Amino acid sequence: MGERRQAKRMPRAGIIGYSVTVLEFREPKNLSLKGEIIDISDIGMSIQTCYPLEPGHVLRFNEGIGHKVGIVVWGMHIKDNTYKVGIKFV
C-alpha cells in the first residue's frame, strides 16, 4: 500500500499541550491534556496520548507548536491507556 499523506512528515520528539471539549453525561467538559509528538508536517501530525481521542474531536494546541487547531482523523489503541492519533490542522 502506498503513502496516502499529502505532505511529508518529519519525526519530532517533544511534549505538546492541547485541549479538547468532550461530552460527559450530556454535558460538555473541557479537558486540558498532554501528548507526545511522533511526527509533524505543515498540514498535520501524529501524537501519542493517554486519552482515547476519536475522529472528529477538535484539538486546540496551546504549547509545543504554537496556537493551532486540528481535527482527529484517525485513532488507535496501542496498549493500556495509550493511544496514537492522526491530526489534520485546520
Give start-end ranges of low-pLDDT stretches: none
Label the structural class. Answer: mainly beta
Rg for CA atoms: 13 Å
Describe the global form: globular
Helix % is under 10%
- H-E string: EEEEEEE
SSE map:
Blueprint: E1 10-11, E2 15-24, E3 27-40, E4 44-49, E5 58-63, E6 68-79, E7 82-89
Antiparallel strand pairs: 1-3, 2-3, 2-5, 3-4, 4-7, 5-6, 6-7
Summarize this entry quickly.
The protein has no helices and seven strands. With 90 residues, it is mainly β. It is globular and about 40 Å long.
Protein described:
There is one protein chain. The protein has no helices and seven strands. It is mostly beta strands. The chain has one domain: predicted glycosyltransferase like domains (Thrombin, subunit H, Beta Barrel), CATH 2.40.10. The chain has a six-stranded antiparallel barrel with strand order 2-3-4-7-6-5. A hairpin with a 4-residue loop joins strand 5 and strand 6. It is globular. The mean pLDDT is 88.
Features:
single chain, mainly beta, Thrombin, subunit H, six-stranded antiparallel barrel, globular
